[in-house]
């Protein structure tokens, strides 16, 4: 019987200290509890660290408690702990992260092996978690657009992603984008169901 579960982990710098566009994944996850009718976040220990988790029957929403660029160790530990509980064949890993190349609030399901495009959080995770060890588990990324400043120099881009987020932008990420994330999760489940019924595993298609 096909009984899928999704471990959905958002990347960002810890809130509320770092309330910036770079933590877009966390803001989207805040709103995802409402869109999925999940329980409120509560602090629990997962992956040997204290973090915020919303545990539902199908979706386990987790805000990574680490700084963005060193997310890999936590994600690997949280994944392995959850796999031990539910089994790899019924568990999918989904990473929600910010994306400079998309307009604010634009959401897209991305194959796991697609280029990180310089995203250090994604790079850290890919160094720590190997999807090849879990052929029955769909691994995928959901990118959330945060836009990009007109100037492309590193200092300007850094200020743009790390400055305090505006109330308007936060509302877009917490109230609008989560509904598109739900669609991505449904698409991923549909792909997974087709793969299981067709007798093969696999990651998200483009």
TrEMBL record:
Enzymatic class: hydrolase
Keyword tRNA-binding: yes
EC number: 3.1.1.29
Molecular function in Gene Ontology: peptidyl-tRNA hydrolase activity; tRNA binding
InterPro entries assigned to the protein according to its UniProt record, in alphabetical order: Pept_tRNA_hydro (IPR001328), Pept_tRNA_hydro_CS (IPR018171), Pept_tRNA_hydro_sf (IPR036416)
Keywords: Hydrolase, RNA-binding, tRNA-binding
Annotated family: Belongs to the PTH family.
Protein name as it appears in the record: peptidyl-tRNA hydrolase
Organism phylogeny: Eukaryota, Fungi, Dikarya, Ascomycota, Pezizomycotina
